[in-house]
Write a structure and sequence with these properties.
Layout: H1 7-12, H2 19-22, E1 27-28, H3 37-45, E2 56-63, E3 67-75, H4 86-90, E4 93-95, E5 98-102, E6 108-111, H5 113-126, H6 134-147, E7 159-168, E8 180-190, E9 201-205, H7 223-238, E10 243-247, E11 255-258, E12 262-267, E13 272-275, H8 285-296, E14 301-304, H9 308-317, E15 320-327, E16 331-340, E17 343-346, H10 351-364, E18 375-377
Parallel strand pairs: 1-3, 9-10, 9-16, 13-14
Antiparallel strand pairs: 2-3, 2-8, 4-7, 5-6, 5-7, 6-18, 7-8, 10-11, 12-13, 12-15, 15-16, 16-17
Bound molecules: pyridoxal-5'-phosphate.
Residues 97, 257, 260-262, 282, 284-287, 327-328 line the site of pyridoxal-5'-phosphate.
Length: 380
């Protein structure tokens, strides 16, 4: 049962420079070949996720003895990588995911960028990658989004998805931490997660594959964890499920998280629970925001071990009334069905899930005041 803010939450609470203060700290080499307004319009008319990219990207290089340098917003394009680049062989990389939203008045904002900066560094520490200052992280985002502001869609539920990442680019086949890295941030306009109603997802509990184990990299946002989630994800899809849910590797009995989202359980007595941060799961910025909102609503919410058999029994008995998943992509999505070996239970979804979704999205979109300082204005 944890009530104290996590290390990431404490780091995320540090004050950040304003976008105007950061706007010119990275060089800008404008694209000579930006998309035409017509081409952009065509993209906006059928927004999906993650397959179309904007005109620019942020890019910096790290070399031992020099630190991070050559910080620039430059035209989007392929990288030249030596085939011996360490990332291609040993997977030394970390990444983040956040969104820029257009508010009703046309201004562009992002949500908890200080949290993503802190988590990128926490992931980097786990993978022996040099850290980037939160100021540089934010300057790359401000510079990129300002350069590609026309790419931020305004249709309801749409956003500009931002993908900062660091890869080990030293050409060396020895197994050790590389001496050279590239940081990049790319951006992709994305459509709404919910295209129909606020539909619940179905979740398949993987009986024998885990995404991470004790002492592993589960708390880091690094490609390897996602690579290990793909086979069970394919299996879940083959069985007709939307997502895979992972159990803890040590006991194979407790709920960890979904492949890309954290989980919350709502009990019929009004209390809630979410799996505690064991080191196996990725600590979501959305999870942290929801914990704060719930506690400020005087809801009892515990971070604890959630046994999967107990959860199934509690859903069957009606003790659990709602389960929801949360993360940057969907913000909050109801879980309508949970199945695995020997069980298959359904949930109706409900009011608590919807009210949390409404409150987080209202803050993100500036429809509600933000007493937490989570929203960050990017445009002037
Ligand atoms: C494995 C995993 N868990 C949880 C999350 C939710 O994190 P956040 O709320 O910061 O998007 C994500 C998404 O980034 C994820 O990939």
């Amino acid at each position: 049962m944890t009530q104290n803010p996590s290390e990431l939450e404490l780091a995320a609470a540090n004050p950040l420079p304003t976008a105007d203060e950061l706007a010119h700290s990275w060089e800008h080499t404008p694209s000579l070949n930006p998309a035409t307004p017509e081409a952009r319009e065509e993209v906006f008319n059928s927004l999906g996720f993650g397959s179309v990219f904007t005109d620019h990207m942020a890019h910096a290089i790290y070399e031992e003895g020099k630190g991070w340098h050559s910080k620039v917003i430059e035209p989007y394009g392929p990288l030249t990588l030596d085939p011996a680049a360490a990332v291609l062989h040993y997977g030394q990389e970390v990444f983040e995911g956040l969104k820029a939203y257009r508010h009703d008045d046309g201004s562009v904002w992002t949500f908890r960028p200080g949290y993503n900066a802190a988590r990128l560094n926490a992931s980097s520490r786990r993978l022996a990658i040099p850290e980037l200052t939160p100021e540089d992280f934010l300057a790359s985002i401000v510079g990129l989004v300002r350069a590609d502001e026309v790419w931020v869609p305004s249709a309801p539920g749409s956003s500009l998805y931002l993908r900062p990442f660091i890869i080990a680019t030293e050409a060396f086949l020895g197994v050790r931490a590389a001496h050279k890295y590239d940081y990049l941030c790319i951006a992709s306009p994305s459509g709404p997660y919910f295209t129909g109603g606020f539909e619940g997802i179905s979740v398949w509990v993987s009986p024998d594959y885990h995404r991470a184990g004790p002492g592993g990299m589960g708390a880091a946002k690094t490609g390897g964890n996602y690579a290990s989630s793909l086979v069970p994800k394919v299996m879940a899809k083959d069985e007709g499920f939307d997502e895979v849910c992972f159990l803890d590797a040590a006991t194979n009995t407790n709920i960890d998280e979904l492949g890309g989202m954290n989980l919350f359980i709502v009990y019929e007595d009004g209390t809630l629970a979410t799996p505690s941060l064991t080191g196996n799961i990725l600590e979501g910025g959305t999870r942290g925001a929801i914990l704060r909102l719930l506690r400020d609503r005087n809801r009892t919410v515990t971070e604890k071990t959630i046994n999967s058999a107990q959860l199934v029994a509690d859903i069957e008995s009606g003790k659990v009334s709602e389960v929801f998943a949360c993360g940057t992509a969907a913000v909050v999505t109801p879980v309508a069905r949970i199945a695995g070996e020997g069980f298959d239970v359904s949930l109706a979804g409900g009011e608590v899930t919807k009210s949390i979704y409404d409150q987080v999205t209202a803050i993100q979109l500036g429809h509600e005041p933000d007493p937490y300082n989570w929203t960050y204005k990017i445009t002037p």
